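tool_call predict_complex ligand=magnesium ion
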Amino acid sequence: MTHIVFCDLDGTVTGEESFVRVLKTFSPALSGVLIPRMISRTMSLREGVRAILESIESRHYPEMLASVRNTPLRAGFREFVDFLGERGIPIVIVTAGVEALARTILGGFATRVYGLYGLDLDTGSAYLKVRSGWESETELVSKPAVIRHVLEKTGGGVAIAIGDSVTDFEMALACPVVFARDRLPGYLLEEGKSFFPFGDFFDVMRILKKSVLA
Ligand SMILES: [Mg+2]
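tool_result ok
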């Protein structure tokens, strides 16, 4: 395989920050304090996301899943999945959020992607407990660790990252080709890492055809 796409979910496949919305809905006070600290990178995602999720009572879990049903997807995503399928390019969704929420949001697309990686929630006690097979020193879901795992499993290929925010920063640094929108370009400019800006998945397809797959 020549290329493989690693794509963020919230704010990238979805038009809005669906995971942030869930955190703010079910843990408003703590989210109000910790989310700005994670965005300014003064608190690690590992620490902040865990603290917020584990402040939520497990009995709210079904409501959390229900709250993301019918989340609108960004323009061109359906066409993008077809586009990649026609070319035999796998797409892996990597979310810094909860895998089950991502699966709900993706609906029928969940079976069309090569892989879906995120964190798991244990709902067996009074409060949610975070479980992640991909934890690093700074992240609950280390996207570079997922990328390494998938590239090993598939025998490699040119890794293409698509993302929008702080949770995609390390993933972007780990990939030779990067598509960035919203906050991510700012972080990458600071780091001197080059990227393609994009608005929707029609832009991504156009740029891929012209500059990456050509
Ligand atoms: Mg995102």
